[in-house]
Design a protein that fits this description.
The complex is a heterodimer. By secondary structure, chain A is of the alpha/beta class. Chain A is built from ten helices and ten strands. A ten-stranded mixed β-sheet of chain B has the order 2-1-5-7-9-12-14-16-18-20. The chains are: A alpha/beta, B mainly beta.
């Protein structure tokens, strides 16, 4: 379904905040649930953006369903069936949740159809469908709407960049169920999740470990996860400060 | 009675496809084209012919008044005075609006001066839409003047919309509020080409507990220019809020001049103004949902001006 060949992303300026990707080659087959993990700054988020077309690689190729999409725009990739959930969802003044879901689905979906996607992410649809996707929504609400917008796309390949960031305890459990149900429903589709949460790693078919912009390790969950436990690549669901402590202890 | 161009203008400015329900006065090319009064709402032409008096009886509920103006001939220039006398405790919707279609070389101009005398406890929703079309070199010019005199505990919501096709606008709005009166203004504006739009508000809060909330959302494209000048004066314990939120595009220019004057210790006044371009991440997000860059921009603007 997806194949990356010798993919690199380099930034000229030393001051840049962007993570670097070095010569990554990997493939993701049909109906797979792949989690890409690694320490902060390892290049995982950049990798996700390269797949969605938000960043352009400095060298290497990306193939989707057998076709070279390296030079395709974000829009073209979206139309080919790649969906992307932002780590930090974007706010829009005036655009309503229903508008966003309609754009995502590419059709004039009914309010009741839209409600199903919102229920899926644990939001009471009646209260949210006419809300603006603006600063009046909390970070957690926005994040769930972001995930609902990817569900509404029904894409062949859905990429989630740290979906758990900013989500509370209740919806974290819900999130796991969302992924499981997505996999059940979308038979041919694959999911790539960028995350270092142990509980998300725990439902992966396959785990890819990125370190310093390279693939450090990859394999099935059973092969990889035991070696990651207790490292920054597989943290237990916890607060930010605890996460930092773990990293410091490494 | 009206030709197709006039009917199209009417549907743009008043959402009317034919004559409306209730009271109405339709002015086309400088003359009255149609009028209807009701038991509670009277419309009378002024003696000099340059406008109408609208009298709404006290206690009139759930009625509407439509007073659209359409100009489809090139070169018409008119100033019209419409006075609204709204009786105590009335609760009505007033829809005004002006559409100009100018295919000629001469400028077409409509200056509508509306004065509202809002009685005690009355509740008004006022909608005013402007629209211009036609590909002539003659300009489409609209200069609305609005004066609002609000008696105690009255409420008025004004929705002002100008989205397309008007070359030049100077909007002057003045309001004086007595005790407990509330004024809400929602202005939505989009300018394109070389258009100019100037909007001046001056609101005097002169009765205890009076309140005003004036919010403008606008988009300036191409080489257009917008000025939003909103002034709230608080003479007594009162509350006032004015906000200008603008998206700037291309080579447009926007000037926001919010100003506040407090003449009383308990006058609580706030102004906010923000001008900025469309955030790149908003466009990227919509592109990941399958829209092109242009489609994404349109969606963002449409949402913003909704």
């Amino acid at each position: 379904m997806l194949e990356l060949k010798n993919l690199s992303f380099e930034v000229a300026e030393e001051v840049s905040q962007k993570e670097i990707v070095r010569d990554i080659s990997l493939s993701v087959g049909e109906h797979r649930f792949v989690v890409i993990t690694g320490p902060n700054g390892s290049g995982k988020s950049t990798l996700a953006k390269l797949i969605a077309g938000i960043e352009k690689p400095t060298s290497g190729q990306i193939y989707f369903e057998g076709a070279d999409i390296t030079d395709k725009s974000i829009t073209e990739r979206a139309k080919l069936g790649i969906a992307f959930a932002f780590q930090q969802p974007v706010r829009f003044k005036g655009l309503e949740v229903l508008d966003l879901l309609r754009i995502a689905s590419g059709r004039q979906m009914s309010a009741s159809d839209a409600c199903e996607y919102l229920s899926e992410v644990g939001l009471c649809a009646r209260d949210y469908i006419r809300r603006e996707v603006n600063a009046s929504l909390s970070g957690g609400e926005l994040k769930r709407i972001e995930i609902a917008s990817v569900l509404a796309r029904g894409a062949g390949l859905s990429v989630f960049d740290e979906p758990e960031a900013g989500i509370d305890l209740w919806s974290f459990q819900n999130l796991i169920r969302v992924f499981e149900r997505m996999q059940e429903k979308n038979k041919g589709g694959s999911i790539i999740v960028i995350s270092h949460q142990e509980r998300i790693l725990d439902i992966a078919d396959e785990i890819i470990v990125i370190a310093e912009g390279r693939v450090a390790d990859r394999g099935t969950r059973d092969e990889i996860l035991p070696g990651l436990l207790g490292t920054p690549s597989a943290v237990k669901q916890c607060t930010g400060s605890q996460t930092k402590e773990r990293i410091v202890r490494q | 009675m009206m030709d197709t161009i006039q009917k199209r203008l009417l549907s743009e400015v008043a959402d009317l496809h034919d004559v409306p329900e209730g009271a109405y006065n339709i002015r086309a090319n400088g003359e009255m084209a149609a009028r209807n009064t009701t038991a509670n709402i009277d419309i009378v032409s002024k003696a000099d012919g340059n406008g109408i008096d609208i009298r709404i009886k006290p206690g009139t509920k759930q009625e509407s008044i439509h007073i659209p103006v359409v100009l489809s001939e090139s070169g018409i220039k008119e100033t019209v005075y419409n006075d609204f006398y709204i009786g105590e405790d009335a609760d009505v919707v007033i829809v005004a609006g002006c559409g100009i279609d100018n295919c000629g070389v001469q400028d077409s101009q409509h200056d509508g001066i509306h004065r509202f005398y809002v009685g005690k406890g009355a509740k008004i929703k006022y909608v005013e839409k402007h629209y211009g079309s036609g590909d002539g070199s003659g300009k489409r010019i609209l200069n609305p003047g609005t004066e609002v005199y609000m008696e105690e505990d009255s409420f008025m919501e004004m929705e002002m919309v100008q989205i397309k096709g008007v070359d030049s606008t100077v909007r002057n709005t003045k309001a004086e509020l007595a005790a407990g009166a509330k004024l809400v203004v929602r202005e939505r504006l989009m300018t394109h080409g070389a258009q100019q739009a100037i909007s001046n508000y001056e609101v005097e809060l002169s009765g205890e507990g009076a309140g005003a909330d004036i919010v403008s959302r606008s988009v300036a494209r191409d080489t257009s220019f917008q000025k939003f000048d909103s002034r709230i004066v608080g003479n007594v314990p009162c509350s006032g809020h004015t906000e200008c939120d603008a998206i700037i595009m291309d080579k447009a220019r926007i000037l926001a001049v919010p100003s506040l004057e407090a003449n009383d210790l308990d006058a609580a006044l706030i102004h906010e103004a923000a001008i900025g371009k469309i955030a790149g991440e908003q466009i990227v997000k919509l592109m990941t949902l399958g829209l092109t860059e242009e489609e994404a921009e349109e969606q963002i603007i449409n949402g913003f001006l909704k």
